[in-house]
Amino acid sequence: MQVTRFICGGFALGIRFNHTMVDSYGIMQFVNAITEFVKGACAPSISPVWQREQHFNARSPPRITCTHNEYEQIPQNKSSSDNVDSGKMIRTTIFFSPQDIQALRNHMSSLGNFGRCSRFDLIAAYLWKCRTIALNPADPNEVVRLSAVTNARGKPGLNIPTGYYGNGFTSPVALSTARIMCTSPLS
């Protein structure tokens, strides 16, 4: 950590951290604790907790309870993304307004059998489907994946303490075939 004080009275704070020890949520807890000390607190309002071995030990003996697709090797065979001319691909940022979200929800409801879901689930499913269709996979049985970093803090059954500053995230993977993604309704 480095603090640079400027003549005008302002300052800049630079932080470098090793992601094997802490995630962004944990580092912000650390920065907030420092801020509280600077303001005169004798202790941080959220006490830091490490105790990783108490919260994240593997079962003994190990027991596999589900498939962890996030750790599977992706086959190196030709995939649909290999068929796309990278010169024609564009990178862009897409903003979904509340009206866009409502339009997607209305569209899904009109198809029937659509329950409530989060905005993230709705947009992720929509973009996953659109991307798969755009790639136009030659093999309809090609497995397509969606992975997103997910905060594990506050999830039922995990009991991650409030002050835990280590890594508290996971990267689950959803799998489907190109055929299902391209032909099934989003719901």
Automatic annotation (TrEMBL):
Protein's recorded name: (Z)-3-hexen-1-ol acetyltransferase
The organism's place on the tree of life at top rank: Eukaryota
Record organism: Forsythia ovata
InterPro entries: CAT-like_dom_sf (IPR023213), Plant_acyltransferase (IPR050898)
Family: Belongs to the plant acyltransferase family.
Alphabetical UniProt keywords: Transferase
UniProt GO molecular function: transferase activity
UniProt keyword annotation of Transferase present: yes
Keyword Transferase: yes
Gene3D superfamilies given in the database record: Chloramphenicol acetyltransferase-like domain
